[in-house]
From TrEMBL:
The lineage of its organism: Eukaryota, Fungi, Fungi incertae sedis, Mucoromycota, Glomeromycotina. It comes from Dentiscutata heterogama. This is 9061_t:CDS:1.
């Protein structure tokens, strides 16, 4: 689901909102939020989506971006619950 391209760049669209810096481990990246400069030492797309969806409530992130990722996060939670 979170495919990494062969040239080693993250493909998940969530990376659009973060600056990716490759780590020593191939296919792994640290992430820097373009909006608030929060640094994630290991930028897992799940975590980054939650950051965009949840950590901006009442803050200045574009509503369109926030609601898009809120939807993604909620959908993922729902599909996890179905698996249990
Ligand atoms: Zn941020």
């Amino acid at each position: 689901m979170f495919a990494i391209s062969k040239i080693g760049r993250p493909l998940d669209p969530v990376w659009e909102h973060f600056v990716a810096t490759p780590l020593k481990l191939p296919g792994h990246f640290s992430a820097l939020c373009k909006y608030c400069n929060t640094q994630f030492r290991h930028g897992h797309p799940n975590k980054l989506e939650i950051h965009l969806a949840k950590e901006y409530e009442g803050k200045s992130l574009d509503d369109e971006i926030r609601s898009k990722y809120l939807e993604i996060v909620i959908q993922r939670q729902l599909s996890k619950e179905k698996l249990v």
